[in-house]
Design a protein that fits this description.
This protein has 424 residues and is α/β, with parallel strands linked by helices. It folds into two domains: 152 residues, Aspartate Aminotransferase, domain 1 (Alpha-Beta Complex), CATH 3.90.1150.10; 244 residues, Type I PLP-dependent aspartate aminotransferase-like (Major domain) (Aspartate Aminotransferase, domain 2), CATH 3.40.640. It is 41% helix and 14% strand. The longest helix is centred in the C-terminal third of the chain and has 30 residues. The radius of gyration is 23 Å and the shape is globular.
């Protein structure tokens, strides 16, 4: 139904039917959750072979006893493997604990308080510091900025990535803009992949920005494709090398959605000069990471091809869930003006845009019908979606049966909110 073209009588009739369906959902006492992009149990089972895999002992290839202290930047074999995910050299790679979010927070905090090249380069010395935030985006990136008191500037995106004319104009005009957040492949939540042109222009930003500018390149879904035909992402570090801006690029990844979400590895790629300064501050808080876990991950995968084979197994489990979400959206709204959505080829989310002014109401209606959704506004800085229309759907964790029921409720809630708004 195109509600902008429907008569009031038709809308009232549709509303009455929707209210009956909604009441039935409420009576069913549902308890469904589509809030966060966590791996499901079957995905976690794919990595059960990690346990007990170190049958030959705890010695790394260079003879290091992984049970002991040391190795601040990680085992050489772990850097050799996961540098390929990051698209940098092993010498430009650091292997951390289980969460790339920790490395991101440390990178931002170190730059803000201690500087990227000593105390004189600390962002906090320059007064109000700002960061560009492509939207819709990842709420935990925004949370880091809020925690550090960094002002966030939203920047719109299209199917190619951030709108670079806007990004470049902002960066040129204000030297207090110290960086930009990016989720470049299967972006959270839209699922888009940055175009080659956008990657190249981002790599050039440090040439027109103020001092100590950093591109926070959170490539969380670098290998999380749903098929082998999914679009590739250009290598941002290669682009930066051509421009001489390697120091401005900091790349992050992890195995959080590859092996065990709470017991995986995080990794970071940046210039060797950046790593030298980062490790100086990192060493004040730790003597070394969990090298046993690094060794068992390397042993489990064997090589990069083994890692990609493992991700194919994830895709087999995830694709039916994404297909179910998209099927419900297509059946519910393909001939409608009540919403639009992305069709991702990887990652963990589907981004849905309702008619303006309805996202909070849709989330409220869903909750009262027993379905938890990501809070409206979570994909924007400060939790404020100016058009109140974006809703992030995360289909990875629930069962296929629960996803289908959740989407039935979601479609009814969108229609109910849309028609009520129109009639009002």
């Amino acid at each position: 139904m195109f509600i902008d073209q429907a008569s009031a009588q038709d809308l009232q009739a549709q509303l009455a039917e929707l209210e009956k369906q909604y009441a039935a959902f409420q009576s069913a006492k549902l308890n469904l959750d589509l809030t966060r992009g966590k791996p499901n149990s079957a995905q976690l089972d794919l990595s059960n072979g990690l346990d007990g895999i170190l049958t030959d002992g705890y010695k790394a290839a260079d003879g290091t006893d992984c049970r002991n202290y040391g190795g601040l930047d990680g085992l050489p074999e772990a850097k050799a493997l996961f540098s390929q995910v990051l698209g940098v050299t092993p010498a430009e790679t650091l292997i951390g604990g289980n969460a790339s979010l920790t490395l991101m927070f440390q990178t931002m905090a170190f730059a803000h308080f201690f500087g990227v090249r000593g105390a004189q380069s600390a962002w906090s010395r320059e007064g109000e510091i700002k960061f560009l935030c492509p939207v819709p985006g990842y709420d935990r990136h925004f949370g880091i900025c809020e925690e550090l008191g960094i002002t966030m500037i939203p920047v719109a995106m299209d199917e190619n990535g951030p709108l670079m004319d806007e990004v470049e104009a902002l960066v040129k005009a204000d030297p207090c803009i110290k960086g930009i957040w990016c989720v470049p492949r299967f972006s959270n939540p839209t699922g888009i992949v940055y175009s080659d042109e956008v990657v190249d222009r981002i790599a050039r930003l440090a040439k027109i920005a103020g001092a100590n500018f950093r591109v926070m390149w959170d490539n969380a879904y670098a290998i999380h494709a749903l098929s082998h035909d999914a679009p590739a992402l250009a290598n941002v570090m290669d682009a930066a090398r051509k421009q001489g801006t390697e120091d401005s690029i900091v790349i992050f990844g992890s195995t959080s959605k590859v092996t065990f979400a709470g017991s995986g590895l995080a990794f970071m790629g940046t210039s060797e000069e950046n790593l030298k300064h980062f490790k100086k501050h990192l060493g004040m808080g730790t003597i070394g990471p969990d090298k046993v876990n690094q060794l068992r991950h390397v042993t489990f995968f064997g090589d990069y091809a083994g890692l990609l084979d493992h991700m194919d197994k994830h895709a087999e489990l995830l694709k039916p869930r994404f297909d179910a979400v998209l099927q419900h959206l297509d059946e519910g709204f393909s001939e409608s003006d009540m919403g639009s959505w992305t069709v991702p080829e990887g990652g963990y989310f589907v981004s849905f845009d309702s008619r303006p002014g309805l996202a909070k109401e849709i989330v409220r209606l869903a909750l009262e019908a027993g379905v938890k959704l990501t809070p409206a506004g979570a994909t924007f800085p400060y939790g404020q979606d100016p058009e109140d229309k974006n809703i992030r759907l995360a289909p990875s964790f629930p069962s296929l049966q629960d996803i289908n029921k959740t989407m039935e409720v979601f479609v009814v809630c969108v229609k109910l909110a849309s028609i009520r708004q129109k009639l009002s």
